């Protein structure tokens, strides 16, 4: 009897996992189809209005990204010692370890 219940649970779990995978695949497929429809409608509209079909492109300049990050480090780094800031002592005091009771 235990083998029958274990087998039923095993097959149910497999079916659930396969159904979840199919749902995920179909949702990705639907998203790609919507994106293709929007792109196609945009291209048809550009042809109808006589404009050139412009591709979707993400314009990114690597040098701009680097300079943005490089400039923003001043906000995240600690400021160096200045003439107005008090100097902290660098003396180190040793601690004698004690036994825990």
Could you walk me through the main structural features you see in this protein, from its secondary elements to its overall organization?
This protein is mainly α and 101 residues long. It is 62% helix and 0% strand. The protein has two helices and no strands. It has helices at residues 2-49, 62-76. The protein is flat. The model has no long low-confidence stretch (mean pLDDT 83). The chain crosses the membrane at residues 15-41. Keywords: Membrane, Transmembrane, Transmembrane helix. Residues 77-101 are annotated as: Disordered.
Question: Quaternary status of these chains?
Answer: single chain
> Tally the helices: what do you get?
2
Beta-strand percentage? Answer: under 5%
Distance between the termini: 59 Å
Largest sheet: none
Mean pLDDT: 83
Give the overall silhouette: flat
Number of strands: 0
Helix percentage range: 55-70%
What string, H for helix and E for strand, traces the elements in order?
HH
Give the helix/strand layout.
Layout (H helix, E strand, L loop, with lengths): L1 H48 L12 H15 L25
Q: Quick gist of this model?
A:
The chain is mainly α and 101 residues long.
Supply the key terms.
101 residues; mainly alpha; 2 helices; 0% strand; flat; transmembrane; membrane
């Amino acid at each position: 009897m235990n083998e029958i219940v274990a087998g039923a649970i095993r097959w149910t779990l497999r079916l659930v996992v396969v159904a979840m995978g199919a749902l995920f695949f179909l949702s990705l497929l639907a998203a790609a189809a919507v994106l293709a429809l929007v792109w196609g409608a945009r291209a048809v509209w550009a042809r109808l209005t006589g404009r050139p079909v412009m591709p979707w492109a993400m314009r990114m300049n690597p040098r701009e990204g680097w300079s943005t990050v490089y400039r923003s480090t001043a906000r995240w780094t600690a400021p160096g010692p200045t003439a107005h800031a008090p100097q902290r002592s660098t003396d180190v005091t040793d601690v004698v370890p004690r036994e825990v009771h």
